[in-house]
Amino acid sequence: MNTTLTSSRHQLPWSEPLRRTELTTLQLNLGRFCNLACTHCHVEAGPKRTEMMPLAVRERVIAWIREHRPAVVDMTGGAPELIPGFRELVQAARAVGCQVIDRCNLAVLDEPGQEDLIDFLVENEVTVVASMPCYLSDNVDRQRGRGTYDRSIRGLQRLNAAGCGRDGQLPLYLVYNPGGASLPPAQDALERDYRTRLQDDWGITFTGLWCLANVPITRFRAFLERSGKLADYEELLWQSYNPATLEGVMCRSTVSVDHRGRVYDCDFNLALGLDMGDVAVDSNTPRHLWDITPTRLSGKTIATGTHCLACTAGCGSSCTGAVAPTPTL
After folding, report:
1. CA torsion sign, 272 to 278 to 284 to 288?
2. How does pLDDT run across 240-283, given as a tens digit for each residue?
3. Are 76 and 103 in contact (CB under 8 A)?
4. Is 285 exposed, middle or buried (0-12, 13-18, 19+ CB in 10 A)?
5. 8-state DSSP, 43
6. Of 217, 235, 200, 209, which is closest to residue 8 (Cα–Cα)?
7. Which single residue of 8, 79, 109, 323 could bond 34 by disulfide (Cβ 3.0 to 4.6 Å)?
8. 189 and 299 in contact (C-beta within 8 Å)?
9. Residue 19 carries which DSSP code?
10. Cβ contact 171:162 at 8 Å
11. Which of 187, 15, 13, 172 lies closest to 102 in space, CA to CA?
12. How many alpha carbons fall within 13 Å on the CB side of residue 252?
């Protein structure tokens, strides 16, 4: 499929279809409602979005989690914490031993009604993965909205005070993505810069930094088009393809589920409405989480398009950051 980029190239650089390995992560996109409207957001979340996972879907998702017990349940959105049923889903997953990840925009921590959110996350031993696209205020506010940097710093300080991101306590990961038409720098080097600046300026500590590339779809694609950089960014992705990334891309071991319960190979395919490539159900069956099992997914073909080059460029990019060493030039 070559429906997402405008490059004149017509074939992806990998010669064989990508196939699934063992399912380890269930990623739940609970909806597109969010207190922010970030310029790079691939699901185009924001305060005016109304898509949220309803009770009937949550109940079926919880039943699936209890039956299949994935190693990781990864909560995202939108702002997942603002979606009704978020806490119920967290508790259900933790009750059967799943690691739970909360992809947190940090600004949500001081929203009205969320005063006890940090206590809840700590009590349930949730791994917080926090968006922090830069350690400089201007860059953060430009991408995520005025005042977001200050709210993010306050959120990180409160998480530290509760034990998140401290040695031997609950993990706290930060997520970086570039502010423009470039690939992330080397993850290890950038993490050192983050540690120095956040510690020196604010006394903040964290467990690790994950670097994610921007995928040229939806809002980020519109930004590239407006700035006249789309063709250059597409060419950068092609030229930076690194075959060593294919073993670690997230789609091989993750299933993404939208607010309706429909399944996708990743959250980017979810944003595009690109169905799973070879889902192990009858073709006449709606492709929902409750129609599949982990064992029937193993070895199945993954739906790919040229947007996937963002995850295979340079050091690669997944929901847990870089997936390959820095390429040798």
Report:
1. negative
2. 999 999 999 999 999 999 999 999 999 999 999 998 877 544 56
3. yes
4. exposed
5. T
6. 235
7. 79
8. no
9. B
10. no
11. 172
12. 14
d(Cα 116, Cα 259) in Å, to the nearest integer?
25
pLDDT tens track for 169-216: 899 999 999 989 999 999 999 999 999 999 999 999 999 999 999 999
Question: How many whole angstroms separate alpha carbon 98 and alpha carbon 117?
Answer: 19
Give the integer Cα–Cα distance in Å for 206 and 202. 12
The three-class DSSP label of residue 50 is coil
Contacts of 249 (CB under 8 A, 6+ apart): 18, 308, 311, 312, 316, 318, 323
pTM above 0.85, yes or no: yes
As a whole number of angstroms, the distance between CA 84 and CA 183 comes to 35
Which residues lie below 8 Å from residue 173, measured CB to CB, with a gap of 6+?
A: 127, 128, 129, 130, 206, 207, 208, 209, 210
* Largest CA-CA distance found in the chain, in angstroms, rounded: 58
What type of residue is 188? D
Task: Return the structure tokens found at 267.
Answer: 């959250």
Alpha carbon distance 244, 94 (integer Å): 34
Cα(245)–Cα(78) distance, rounded to whole angstroms?
27
Domains of the chain, with CATH numbers? 25-311 (3.20.20.70)
What SS3 class is residue 263?
Answer: strand
DSSP letter for 126, please. P
Give the residue carrying structure tokens 């006394």: 203
What DSSP element (H or E) covers 235?
Answer: helix 230-239
pLDDT attached to residue 286:
54
Q: What span, in angstroms and rounded, lies between the C-alpha atoms of 82 and 161?
A: 22
230-239 vs 218-226: helix crossing angle, rounded to 10: 120
Q: How far apart are CA 203 and CA 209, in angstroms?
A: 16
Interatomic CA distance for residues 52 and 35, integer angstroms = 14
Backbone angles phi, psi at 30, to 5 degrees: -75, -15
Question: Which amino acid, residue 11?
Answer: Q
Strand partners, 321: 318
